[in-house]
Amino acid sequence: MKTPLKIAIIGITGNVGKRVAEEALNRGHQVTGIARTIDSIAVRNNLALLIGDIDDPEGLARILKGHDLVVSSIKPTDFNHDKLIKAVRLSGVKRYVVVGGAGTLEVAPGVTGLDSGLLPDFVVPVAKSAQNYLDILRSSKDINWTVLAPGAEFTAGERTGKFRLGGHELISDENGKSAISFEDYAIALLDEIETPRHLKDYFSIGY
User: Fold this and answer.
1) Which of 91, 98, 179, 181 could form a disulfide with 153 if both were Cys (CB 3.0 to 4.6 A apart)?
2) Counted domains in the chain
C-alpha cells in the first residue's frame, strides 16, 4: 500500500468525479469532495464533503490548501478557466490533475479531433473549451499539471482494469471505435496520481 494521499476532487457529484472518488477511497486515500451542492453524495470513511464555488477563487483556495493534489473533473464549458487556475495557484497545492477531452487528441499526426472538422456540432463547444483549458495549462510555468484525455465514447460501464494508454493520440480499437468507461478511466487516473509519469503533459486512454 502506497502512502495515503490527501486528494481534493472538484466536481465530485459528476459522472467522472464520483468514480474517481470511489477509486481513491478504495485505495485508502483521503478525499475531499467539492461541489456547489453535495447532497447527492453518501458520507463514508475518509471522505469529507465541502461546498465550494469556482466563482470564489479565494474561498475555493482555502478549501484546497493542505492537500497533496487537486483533481478537476468538471465539464470544461461549466466553469471559468482563469478563476479555477487562480484558486489552484492561491492554494499552494503542488499537483493538479485534470479530466481532459477527447477532442484535444490527435486523430492524425499534428491534427486533433477538433482540428479535423469531423466532430458532431454538439461536441464542438466542449472540445473547444477543453482545448482552451489545455492551452492555458501548457503555458503555465508554475503549475505541475497532468491531463488524462478519454476515448471519444466516455460513458458508464465496467471496471475491467484492461485498457491502453497513449501519448497525445486518440486510442481506437481494431474496428476504429474509441471508448473508455468512467470506471476504467478512474483506475488510470489514480495510477497516475500514485505514480506520476506525465507531469506537465497530457496523455490518452482507450480500449
Assistant:
1) 179
2) 1
pTM score: 0.95
> How far is C-alpha 105 from the geometric centre of its chain's CA atoms?
15
Structure confidence by residue, pLDDT tens digits, 89-112: 999 999 999 999 999 999 999 999
The H-assigned helical ranges of the chain are 15-26, 57-64, 81-91, 113-116, 124-138, 182-194
Residue 1: inside a domain, yes or no? Answer: no
Full domain range(s) for residue 50 = 6-206
Residues 62, 1 contacting (CB under 8 angstroms): no
Q: How far is 17 from 23, CA to CA, in rounded Å?
A: 10
Q: Does residue 115 contact residue 169 with C-beta atoms inside 8 Å?
A: no
Sort 121 into a burial class: Cβ within 10 Å, 0-12 / 13-18 / 19+. Answer: exposed
Burial zone of 93 (CB within 10 Å; 0-12 exposed, 13-18 middle, 19+ buried) = buried
